[in-house]
Amino acid sequence: MTQTYRIAVLPGDGIGPEVTAEALKVLRAVGERHGLSFEVREGLVGGAAYDATGDPLPPETLELARWADAILFGAVGGDKWDHLPLEKRPERGILGLRKELDLFANLRPVVTWEPLLHTSPLRPEILEGGVDILIVRELTGGLYFGQPKGRDGDRTIDTCVYTDAEIRRVLHVALQAARRRRGRVVSVDKANVMATSRRWRELAEEVAREYPDVQLSHMYVDNCAMQLIRNPRQFDVIVTENTFGDILTDEASTLAGSIGLLPSASLGSGRAGLYEPIHGTAPDIAGKGVANPLAAILCVEMLLRYSLDQPGAADAVQAAVAAALRDGYRTPDIREEGTRLVSTAEMGDAVVARLDS
Amino acid sequence: MTQTYRIAVLPGDGIGPEVTAEALKVLRAVGERHGLSFEVREGLVGGAAYDATGDPLPPETLELARWADAILFGAVGGDKWDHLPLEKRPERGILGLRKELDLFANLRPVVTWEPLLHTSPLRPEILEGGVDILIVRELTGGLYFGQPKGRDGDRTIDTCVYTDAEIRRVLHVALQAARRRRGRVVSVDKANVMATSRRWRELAEEVAREYPDVQLSHMYVDNCAMQLIRNPRQFDVIVTENTFGDILTDEASTLAGSIGLLPSASLGSGRAGLYEPIHGTAPDIAGKGVANPLAAILCVEMLLRYSLDQPGAADAVQAAVAAALRDGYRTPDIREEGTRLVSTAEMGDAVVARLDS
Ligand SMILES: CC(C)[C@H](C(=O)O)[C@@H](O)C(=O)O
Ligand SMILES: CC(C)[C@H](C(=O)O)[C@@H](O)C(=O)O
């Protein structure tokens, strides 16, 4: 007897559809091998949804998302829609999903893959021994959603707002994750300037008292942006607010070698979650079959682990990705001499072929 | 007949006093050689001022700053004062000066020094040919000063606010600087999420029309944080708002090899300016005579260039720093095998000794 998991697939724009197709291919393949069955439904989101319906997050898509045990999300956005007001832009698709489903904790693991150490712009000495950081980004608060927001005559305003409860719950996620890792959390803020940061720091101290086995420290965001490059191996778990997390995770992707390698899980208080690569739509390479699908495929790993509670299947995906890299398969973003250049679909196939090993 | 320039020296906290002393040493030495005379007055700021007067920016200091043609600033802050409310913290000293003197444009050059290419955490290939970026950070708006700011029950708020005039004037500074450089400006924002960014982007397009010889492009801040590490040589001038500029400049310091090498100039509408290293107070090494004074010394270069209009003297400082590095003088932050480890004061002396060559 197998359980049927409900999977919503929202490919979005640009390279979203092509990388999501590979992720789905891997999900189906690992499901067969681990006796998992899926009901998969696809929906429109972002620019694609706007073009079809005039709404970047149509009601049917939101319904589909609520129905699902897990959402495989591609990417949204593109120059084509830049002229639209903020509430019609493709980005509203992902922002709306995060907010409506209350997916407040965005887990963004940053790990180096041994065979790719030489594709990072950082010196090998800096990465030696490997980097393994989990960045926990708050995802439904801060500057992204605070009101008032907008233009009033010659003044324009964004509001960064956090309630104590919003800060506390994401700190718990980070502190709990640290327990299952190396036991250290760096909380990143700008407490010397921002009131929300100051409150964040106070609450971090308070919440951490419930985790005497975890070591908490604080770092200013400007310093963290420097430390991530100078000495990334000092970090275990980083927890930070929405905007800082957005910036620091893109920066940290350089450690792994390519932003095409970084998945993320957006979780709320239940098991359901949304899984999206941290890369964008990369319009310049969209439709050419050259995008790296590994970030999307690693989303499947996170999906299996966090939403479906299938650690065995998750480990299998992780191992298959490692094997494909070890065997020299490379999309253009991580190409090196002496490796085998493959297309998006060939990389997906290479991972599937290694699920049994 | 020599003109007498009025210089205010505000050493502040931590390593501020020791690096500022070397900067002053170089300023006096270059002044003698170039027939410049100075009236130098020192003032209290930051934690030092708070301890002495209960105010991180005492009225006498503000008066001194207004009197000066140029201000040599050290650094402010430290754990010791972290418990104080935001308006009493050492940082209020520098933030207050920026705001009161309306120093809205913060120029932060990021350059690689040939003899230090190997001290950067980045691979030599990435830096090959040298990096020469000017980051223009807006300094008196955004999240730093916007009201309302503070806690109200269980909600805490910061406000990011910009008037059109504030955005326009800093864009002009960047576009003018690009004219004297390689003619390219990247305006960095988060226009897919923030209303202030969206307005920033519109005004950048508008203002750039007055500079048909300058090429303007836009980049999201998350992407910029990645591009600075992946391909820093693509940038000429970067212009961005206050908080993004804070984060990106600290990150970019890794290109130069050490944050101890980065000066900055904070300018308003007149010639008067404030010059401060972008590094902080580094409490862990304060008072030990090991801090790198080159950022502070390079502030003297900027001061001569921008506030005193003495390009010859500025060039002499620049050349003397390059010569000291070429001759192998190194503070611990940039030490390499085969170089000569020196103290803060010895580095200052090494630069002075090379002013005549
Ligand atoms: C597309 C955009 C709204 C989004 C964000 O800023 O959160 C993206 O950059 C990300 O990091 O997921
Ligand atoms: C000390 C602090 C207030 C300051 C800032 O954030 O502007 C510093 O980080 C800087 O970059 O000059």
Automatic annotation (TrEMBL), chains A, B:
The record's subcellular locations are: Cytoplasm
Molecular function as annotated in GO: 3-isopropylmalate dehydrogenase activity; magnesium ion binding; NAD binding
The alphabetized list of GO BP terms reads:
L-leucine biosynthetic process
Q: Which residues bind substrate?
A: R98, R108, R137, D222
Which cofactors, by name? Answer: Mg(2+); Mn(2+)
UniProt EC number:
1.1.1.85
The residues listed in the UniProt record as binding Mg(2+), with positions renumbered to this chain, are D222, D246, D250
Q: Which reaction does it catalyse?
A: (2R,3S)-3-isopropylmalate + NAD(+) = 4-methyl-2-oxopentanoate + CO2 + NADH
Report whether Ribonucleoprotein shows up as a keyword of the record.
Answer: no
Kindly list the GO CC terms recorded for this protein: cytosol
UniProt keyword Oxidoreductase, yes or no = yes
Span of domain Isopropylmalate dehydrogenase-like: 6-351
Name the predominant localization. Answer: cytoplasm
| Entry keywords, A to Z | Amino-acid biosynthesis, Branched-chain amino acid biosynthesis, Cytoplasm, Leucine biosynthesis, Magnesium, Manganese, Metal-binding, NAD, Oxidoreductase
What the record notes about the co-factor is:
Binds 1 Mg(2+) or Mn(2+) ion per subunit.
- Its annotated pathway? Amino-acid biosynthesis; L-leucine biosynthesis; L-leucine from 3-methyl-2-oxobutanoate: step 3/4
The similarity annotation says: Belongs to the isocitrate and isopropylmalate dehydrogenases family. LeuB type 1 subfamily.
Free-text function comment from the UniProt entry: Catalyzes the oxidation of 3-carboxy-2-hydroxy-4-methylpentanoate (3-isopropylmalate) to 3-carboxy-4-methyl-2-oxopentanoate. The product decarboxylates to 4-methyl-2 oxopentanoate.
Q: Which NCBIfam families match?
A: leuB
Quaternary data: Homodimer.
Name used for this protein in its record = 3-isopropylmalate dehydrogenase
Task: Give the organism, scientific name.
Answer: Caldinitratiruptor microaerophilus
Taxonomy of the source species: Bacteria, Bacillati, Bacillota, Clostridia, Eubacteriales
Q: Which gene encodes it?
A: leuB
